[in-house]
Specification:
- By secondary structure, the protein is an alpha+beta fold.
- The chain has a single domain, classed as Ribosomal Protein S7 (Orthogonal Bundle), CATH 1.10.455.
- The chain is 45% helix and 17% strand.
- It has three helices and two strands, in the order H-H-H-E-E.
- It has a two-stranded antiparallel sheet.
- The longest helix is centred in the middle third of the chain and has 19 residues.
- The chain is flat.
């Protein structure tokens, strides 16, 4: 708990090449020890290889891959009668 004020949430800016916030968040997740340029080189290099091998738009394939990895339903635990039980909520 901060004593003075709560830090303001910063909005994530879209990346300069694909103009996508999802790409920026992915690059920030790949980044190690604050080395964003290294993470960007790895990501954009992979996107170039995707474009060369498939001949399709790499951003579309990236979004499809992220959707395939994301869980289809969300499991939340609730306390009922002294026991914790899991309930599934579908994500739409």
């Amino acid at each position: 708990m901060p004593r003075r004020r709560v830090a303001a949430k910063r909005e994530v800016l879209p990346d300069p090449i694909y103009n996508s916030v999802m790409v920026t968040k992915f690059i920030n997740g790949v980044m190690w020890q604050g080395k964003k340029s290294v993470a960007e080189k790895a990501f954009y290099g992979a996107m170039q290889k995707i474009a060369e091998r498939t001949g399709d738009e790499p951003l579309k394939i990236f979004k499809k891959a992220i959707d395939n990895v994301a869980p289809a339903l969300e499991v939340k635990s609730r306390r009922i009668g002294g026991a914790n039980k899991a309930f599934a909520h579908y994500r739409f």
